[in-house]
From TrEMBL:
It catalyses: N(6)-[(R)-dihydrolipoyl]-L-lysyl-[lipoyl-carrier protein] + a hydroperoxide = N(6)-[(R)-lipoyl]-L-lysyl-[lipoyl-carrier protein] + an alcohol + H2O. It comes from the Bacteria. Keywords: Antioxidant, Disulfide bond, Oxidoreductase, Peroxidase, Redox-active center. Homotrimer. The active site is at 131 (proton donor), 134 (cysteine sulfenic acid (-soh) intermediate). It is an enzyme of class 1 (oxidoreductase). One of its GO terms (molecular function) is disulfide oxidoreductase activity. Pfam families: CMD (PF02627). Residues 95-175 form the Carboxymuconolactone decarboxylase-like domain. Belongs to the AhpD family. This is Alkyl hydroperoxide reductase AhpD. Antioxidant protein with alkyl hydroperoxidase activity. Required for the reduction of the AhpC active site cysteine residues and for the regeneration of the AhpC enzyme activity. Disulfide bonds join 131-134.
Length: 176
């Protein structure tokens, strides 16, 4: 199992990450599609080839082809949106906030899977990319759809752990 290989690669000084990785994936209460879509989208967002290589096959085995594609789509579109909206928000000139984005984002309206799942994946990617505007927007959509806070919390716990594992393993590879 690739998850076990990934856990075994985590150095002893990061034992908490190893335990957390097993916990957020192995003990998650999320339905399989939400869980593995979140894992895949955040593994992509982590920008770590190793983490993605290890987790993508397991995600693919647990997702329909449509869900696998949609999770990749969430990571792709949020990669663009997080930079755009975070930048627009951080600029002191409020005029940028009134200007049309002019960027294609059709996949958000028609992701090919349940809209809630796509929103959850988009939220988790936004957590990794640090876009407060996108986090607020996706969280509001999820809450209005009746998604409980514990489900949303679970998604950003997964994002947090996968990002930390990626940073740790990439640092170890660079230091080797």
């Amino acid at each position: 199992m690739a998850l076990d290989e990934l856990k075994s690669a985590i150095p002893d000084y990061a034992k908490d990450l190893k335990l957390n990785l097993g916990s957020v994936i192995g003990n998650s209460d999320l339905p399989a599609q939400q869980l593995w879509g979140t894992v895949l989208a955040t593994a992509i967002a982590s920008r770590s080839p190793r983490v993605l290589r290890e987790l993508a096959p397991e995600a693919e085995a647990n997702l329909s082809p449509e869900a696998f594609k949609a999770a990749k789509s969430a990571a792709a579109i949020m990669s663009m949106n997080n930079v755009f909206y975070r930048t627009r928000h951080l600029l002191s000139d409020d005029e940028y906030g009134t200007m049309r984005a002019g960027l294609r984002m059709n996949v958000i309206g028609n992701p090919g899977v349940d809209k809630i799942d796509f929103e959850l994946w988009s939220f988790a990617v936004s957590a990794i990319n640090g876009c407060g505007m996108c986090l607020d927007s996706h969280e509001q959509v999820l809450r209005k759809a009746g998604v409980e806070r514990d489900v949303i919390l679970e998604s950003f716990k997964i994002a947090s752990v996968i990002q930390a594992v990626a940073v740790t393993l990439d640092a170890e590879a660079a230091l080797a």
